[in-house]
Write a structure and sequence with these properties.
- The chain is an alpha/beta fold and 454 residues long.
- The protein is 48% helix and 21% strand.
- Helix 4 packs parallel to helix 9 and helix 5 runs parallel beside helix 7.
Length: 454
Amino acid sequence: MIGSSDNNGVELPVWSVSQLNQRARQLLEGQLARVAVVGEVSNVRVVGGHAYFSLKDDRAQVAAVLFSREVELLGFDLVAGLKVLATGRVTVFQPRGTFQIVLDTLEVCGTGALQTAFEELKRKLDAEGLFATSRKRPLPPLPRRVGVITSPTGAVIRDIVQVATRRFPGARMLVLPVRVQGAEAAPMIARAIGKASHWSKELGLDVLIVARGGGSIEDLWAFNDEKVARAIAASQIPVVSAVGHETDFTIADFVADVRAPTPSVAAELVFPEQAELVARLRRLAVRIERSVGRDIQRDRHRLRAAGNALGDGRALIAVQSQRLDFAIEALRRSAQTTTAARRLKLEKIGTRLAHLHPRVRLGQLRGCIQAIGERVELLAVKQIEWRRHRLAGVAGRLNALSPLGVLERGYSIVLGPDGKALCETAGVKAGDRLDIRLARGRLGAVVDGIETEE
């Protein structure tokens, strides 16, 4: 170790990188020793049985490692989003100078905020039926063109193109570039899925691959967005979700028609192996050729057997020709008989139709109408005459009962001073003026005397 001075002239020790990391490790392990930390698990990687991950809160994070022996003793799966109580020792990983906690115990004490949001959205969409197996559509066996929604740069698109062209050299793809991380990622991904679905027929798209590489739950969060999930569910063509590594699960994986553990596997699922297709076609051609050959051979044997069973065909033709002559003669006689019968029937129908001709029928109806008119006229005359005699009788009876008729016989009606007809002398006194009504005319009189009959 060599020396050096600072601005104040104080001599400082000069360390090598290894010495600095070793000293830092000694200080940390000496000062902190064992610690207990509460945090949310993120960015889990398992290598050689050892689990490497981060513990974080809303302001910071720290690297953590759990060696294979402790991993085997865990009673739960170590996944991103878990809120845990971790116990271990603080140290520095000298080769990299990484500050980390080497854990010996790990207890679950809840879920983190992102994991809680993930579970809530998962339950909501599952209740709506977006994860139902009945909605899943099969992938086309030989897609015309495949849409790939991912970042235009990076290993993901290169892996997909490499696998696709290796398996099917004539593969056709349309890359729809989007952001796969950050605040703008989810809206871009949802729009890209919607456009690809809407224009799928015009673009010749048969299937979509939505992909990105691995990362923490924060890195993959765009694929846990509700808009992205609903865009996948509404797609008119099948969607393959290839997000993260095999251990990573997103909402997009549950909604998609097919979930691929990696983008490379997605390409293998979508694009068939051309050599395998060719081999299968050749096998089918051989099977068809053999099947057709067997059918031809079988039919040849059947034809030969039928020929042997028939014997000399000329005798059979002669017999059938004679039967045909008899049948023709019988048909001719039947036709003549049928024709004669139908002619007679037509003549009868013609006679009936002649009687039913409109001109004949019209004359008949005209005669009926004339007769009915004469009868109606006669009945009307008789009815009028009868009603006239009846009216005269009624008039005579009415005339006999009418006061006017009584007056015609010499009687009169005497009206008192009050204008009412008098039937007796009561109420009349001498000097009263009376009105006498005759059959024709009226007389005025004054009472000069009254005689009362007992």
